[in-house]
Every structure is written in C-alpha cells, then in structure tokens.
Amino acid sequence: MTYTGYEPHELKQMGYWKPLLEYADIIVAGRYQEDKRNTYLRWRGSENQEIFYPKRSRLDRHSHETNEIEIIISEHGNITTLGYPELKK
Asked: Does the reported pTM lie above 0.70?
C-alpha cells in the first residue's frame, strides 16, 4: 500500500504512476485536506483522496469499503490500536 500525497496526473508527469501500478496493491492518491477529513473512510483521511487497485492487486477492492479500528492485546497485556478512531472535540 502506498500513500502518495500526489494527484494521479502529477504522478504520471513525474514518471511514478507505472511503477506504482506494477508494485503496489493499493494506491492512495491526493493530498490530505483537513476540511475534508472523514474518519469513516477506509485507508483515506479525507474525502478528496482516491484509492486505486491496480489490475494485478491481490486485494478484493469491494471487501474493504468502511474504516475499522483494530485493537490488539498481547499476552503481556500491551495494547496496540490500529486504524483511525474518531476524534472527540
């Protein structure tokens, strides 16, 4: 998975688009925009960002449409949280 921070047309101009399509399973394109923040999106922080699944991707593009939080508790009691929880303001 690659977070680019760039728009697809910028990646194409820089010559990075084809290598990304070849090596990444998921490409997130676009800059994060605080005013478009949405914590319910899977793998994106803001609504303007796009997700691309290259044809050779091993992932099912329809099975991951909503954001989730994963909580892992180790055998020693350590807690790890993965994902984007909704912030309380």
From this structure: no
